[in-house]
């Protein structure tokens, strides 16, 4: 499995939806070089360059905890003159069986 696994929660069709992104290894320079997904719900796409304000934290990464960290970070980013341009993403770096105190997570806030 690759790290980080990046998630974003939202809603669509009246349901809660979670989008999950896996960062492909560097050997895949372009999306076309990646293996073809066998599940039609999986898509491979290249994302252009982006800028994020990032806060690292340990423990369990969930929407509530990420929201608290994001709120604090957004205030600091705006105080430092950065413009927040979207919802935060959660990045998880460890497998699910890692003990919470040993986990590494990030809140990623898109900025201009």
UniProtKB/TrEMBL annotation:
Pfam families hit by this protein: SOUL
SUPFAM superfamilies xrefs: Probable bacterial effector-binding domain (SSF55136)
Superkingdom of source: Eukaryota
InterPro entries the UniProt entry points to: Reg_factor_effector_dom_sf, SOUL_heme-bd
Homology family: Belongs to the HEBP family.
Name under which the protein is recorded: HEME-BINDING PROTEIN-RELATED
Organism name: Salix purpurea (Purple osier willow)
């Amino acid at each position: 499995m690759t790290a980080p696994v990046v998630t974003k929660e939202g809603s669509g069709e009246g349901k809660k939806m979670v989008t999950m992104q896996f960062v492909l290894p560097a050997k895949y320079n372009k999306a076309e070089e990646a293996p073809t997904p066998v599940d039609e719900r999986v898509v491979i796409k290249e994302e252009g360059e982006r800028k994020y304000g990032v806060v690292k934290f340990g423990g369990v990464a969930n929407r509530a905890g990420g929201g608290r960290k994001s709120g604090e970070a957004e205030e600091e980013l705006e105080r430092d003159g950065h413009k927040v341009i979207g919802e935060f993403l959660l990045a998880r770096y460890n497998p699910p069986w890692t003990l919470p105190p040993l986990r590494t997570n990030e809140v990623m806030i898109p900025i201009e």
